[in-house]
Amino acid sequence: MPALVPLEFISHLIKVLHDYFQPPLSRQKIEKNYSTIMMLLNEMIEDGYPFVTEENALRDLVPFADGLSKFLPTLPKGAANSLKSLTSSSSSSKSFSSDSSLSRSNVPWRRSNVKHNNNELYIDIQETLSVIIPALSPTQQLLNSISGGSNPVPSASAFYTPAVPQVLAEPIVAIAHGSVLATTKLSGVPDIQLILSFGNRLLEGPAFHPCIRLARWRERPGTLSFIPPDGKCCLLQYTISGVESGPIGGDLKTGLGPMKDEFEVRVWSRVPRNVKFVENLRVEVVFDGERVQNVKGTRASSGEFNIEKKGVGVWRFPGKTPMGWNASLRGTMVVNEDLESGPDGTVPQEFPKYIKISYDCQGMLVSGAKVESLRIVSGNGLDDRAKPYKGVKYLTQGKDIVIRG
Amino acid sequence: MAESLSKITAIFETAKELTMEAATSARTATASLGEDGVFRQRDVQRYLNSRHEKEKLVGMKAIATMMSKGQDVTEYFPDVVKNSAAQTLEVRKLVYIYLLRYGQQESDLALLSINAIQKSLGDQNPQIRAMAIKVLSGIKVPSIAPIILLGIRKSIVDMSAIVRRSAAVAIGKCFELDKSNLETLVGYLATLLADKSFYVVGSAVQTFVNICPDRLYMLHANYRRYCNMLADIEEWGQVCVLDMLTRYVRVYVPKGSMVKKQKDSFYSDDEESGREAEEQQEDFVIDPDLELLLAAAKPLLQSRNSAVVLAAVNLFNALVPEADLSFLGPPLVRLLSRPSEIQYVVLSNIAVLAIQNNELFAPYLKYFYVFPSDTPDMAKLKIEALTLSCSESTVSEVLSELQYYATSVDKFLVAEAVRAIGRCAQISNEIARRCLRWLLKQIHSTDHTLVGESLTVIRYIIQLSPKDHIKTVAKLAVALDSATVSLARASIIWLVGEFAGIARYIAPDVLRKCAKNFTEEDESTKLQIVLLAAKLYSYYVEEKPVQEDHAQEDQQLEPTIKPPADPMDLLFDYIMLLARYDTSYDLRDRARLYKSVLSNQSTAPIAKLLLQAPKPSPHAPSPSQGKEKFLIGSSGLVCANINDTRPLPPWSSDTPDASIRDEVKVEESSVLSSLPKKVKPKAKKEKKASKKKVVVEKIKPVKPKSVKKAEEDYHTTLDEFFGEPAATSTPVMEDSEQQEEDDEEEEEEEEEAEETESEVEIIVEVSEDSEEEESEDDSEDEISEGDDENEVEEEGSEEEGSESASDDQGETEDESDDAAARGLLSGQ
Description:
Number of strands of chain A: 18
Number of strands of chain B: 2
Largest sheet of chain A: 9 strands, mixed
Largest sheet of chain B: 2 strands, antiparallel
Low-confidence stretches of chain B: 25-31, 261-280, 546-556, 665-828
Low-confidence stretches of chain A: 67-104, 148-165
Largest interface: A-B, 99 and 120 residues
Shape of chain B: elongated
Strand order of the largest sheet of chain A: 6-8-4-3-18-16-11-14-13
Number of helices of chain B: 40
Helix content of chain B: 55-70%
Radius of gyration of chain A: 28 Å
Mean pLDDT of chain B: 73
Oligomer: heterodimer
Strand content of chain A: 35-45%
Helix content of chain A: 10-25%
Distance between the termini of chain A: 45 Å
């Protein structure tokens, strides 16, 4: 069996379990639903190979435990039993009654007979940003130190220093992995056309949900034409390299202070286009845990700095961080005395190796991708006046923004 | 009036609420079973034996919970088996799962359920039929193999693709159970391989791979069809189909080739295309059939399923490695956004691909930069991919990145990076010098890993061309003065000794310096100093007799009048003396050995062997070297101890004519799939059958007839017959007007099904009370038959469902009739 089949299967299984039981999955949830999970697995694997793994197809095969269907089991034969009276009174038992269990819709990824009272359609575009910014070259450092003379290094007392370093290193890697997610709660079989624009950027090997009509994309890249599966699905995954380094910048300076033993970390948020804040901002300051005993004399202009594990100090900014803001952190690394000395007989001063920034930023995408238009081409079973499209959400997640010192 | 109406509605509401409450309380009553996590056997049995479906379900859920917890629930076997004909789908499914799990252990009891399962094979609900064939083939009781065979025979011509797909899997399971049935099963499989539904083909091919992977000739007529439907097959099926088509092409399709002006040896096989090809210069010529496959496989590189992507990459890599495959890069690097275990597999494959073609990933170097969040295994593979993909123009960028890793905190990363720098050094002499310069600097580092690995790489680079690196040895000797890490000192001394043969001036001086503070060195360094002394002395001893004849350039080694006065002798004796009184046993032993070997002229050859043996150049291949023998995407490539890889067949030099792939059998396949279509009227009929028994009698004889007709046509003039698809239905219609009406009705419904699913929904609801009306209102359109037998079937069986429930007994009889009829239909 190809190596990726079991791995992909597991990721499908997790998706299906999320679909059935809502994330996050807990032990209790699993234990409460053993029989459902058993039936799911029974459908998903046949003869040791993945069989039916599409969430929507599984919904037709395995009762979906929510609301009434939880205790009103399926009645494939119309039920000549006591349950007949029960089910007939409740229309929602239809969700897994005979008709739906029998039919397989002719769109393999869409479950049959979808009905929603409120028709809704949401689009989410998420990008995960990975950036490596190298250390400044000696000339750049020199430039900074010259101009730094007139603009003194912020002291501990100075909050929200407005200055931003003059010379910044260009990122050597800046990759955004994006995914376009759709949450559709539409009755019938809607046909949707979503047009995205990526500026002039090149998507490296986009991957599509099976529902996307590839021919349309080829005709006009950016066009997603599809009949969506019911519920959540990932329409498109893409990768773009050479993007901007994101709304949060940072730098790491070493060898500062009178003893040349201090380091300084600075982070700042760039002036936004239409973003008000970033969330969950956190800066990891990584140093050699073997050689550094402690970090002393830390002064942070805001946020909290703690050593959380060996070799990693975390500087947190809880809640929302506004844009056009900055903060700095200074400190000195205390070198482990037991270490053997260098050739000149002294133990060299240690500094952070790199800093790693992570955050969530809603409302923008680093790639500049955006939804141009969304049209429900044909919504059979949908009210004509209905305006199900509720808009798009953009989210940039800074995951691995590494700034080397 | 309005008031009373509202009253009535209110009453209804309360009634509804009451029923709901009843349901809820019923639930709470039953749900108490096993709430504390303990199931009392008596309780569970009571539920299982209950007359109420709902309670049975509770019982089965308890069984499922116990099974999931790993408890042995075989004791409930009799109680569970009783429910194998349960009305509720969910109960039945759970019973089936139970049977699959325990059938083998309690084969006698399991046989009791076989009858009920067999009956389900004729159920109206395709899902139940599919489940039945699945369970039948899954109960591992060898004695029922003939029953399974019967079941499969019936299911492969089922009108529902769901059932046929399950039958495809059942064939594989039946083969596992009883291998003697291979030929029969292969016959059945051939039918499914030719199935027109892409839903079935994926599983059929998967079974093909399991039971008879070598019978690739079975695919001749299907090849082009598979290529055309590739995009529609479900993703797991795509993985199998891609693999199998790759193998097929290697055996039956001529290899594509870069055509040059001279005739390739390849073209000796095929004179015509050779001549043709000569006209177009430097062109990549491939067979049209291969081209068809490549065109079909290319979109699969954009699959969201990484297994499909790798299977497609393997196809291109195995079939057209000569072509420009640069388009394989983006899909693979995109997979690096997936979870780390998938990334690991993808990177392993990227490394192997990069070994074969180092330009493939040259534009994507950035994707291989190591992030702190990468696991060590991933980092190792990324570094390897970086090293393999860099060229002379990009190497400086890669080197500076590697140098960053080499000075990082992570020991593992340091070692990998330094080794990678060594591999980069092979690109050119200029780069080797640059690498060497950097590595020599690292000797002074306090990082042991860095120093150790650097010296290993330095040794490697020197050994590649020792003559060019005498200066390097000298530099090393100088570095020894300042090197503090004992490991580094030991390695340098070893290196100097090793190259004493070529760098004659350096080694004795190093020895002299070392002798001065021998006692302060670490043991490992001392060992190396002793070894160095022995090596030098052996060169010295060896040259002594020769020296008389030749004028010696070497001043230091030139023997003076009296040998003992020679500095070499003195040095050697001095070091041996020091070693003799060292605290280390090992050191003393070695010193004694060297001394005894070297002091005697007769043992000189042994000493030479011992001390001057040329060391093999350390081999520094890329870690993934040697994995090329595995297929891209295979498990063997990732896990060394899995050896499931069936190698690709070699390219066949003598390929048959492309006409074997003409789609003769595709027509046949539509015969086979058209069989179920004839059944459709029957399905309709049966619904009515329960209403009007008279109709059943009138219609039933028609069915075999229509099939016979089709078969006759098939045997006589296939092409003609299928040239006019309408012909198939005409004779059937003639038989009875009722039949005709049904056909039309059906077609109508199909059309609607195609147009809009939601409307079908409405029809479904309507048809429950007044199906006749519905059909009569419909206009009589001539529509080509669509793929939607399912739709029609569903409605049919849905209707059936509500009716059959009313009289269970009668229905079972009908079912057996039905089964018999189907047996006929499947047309032995």
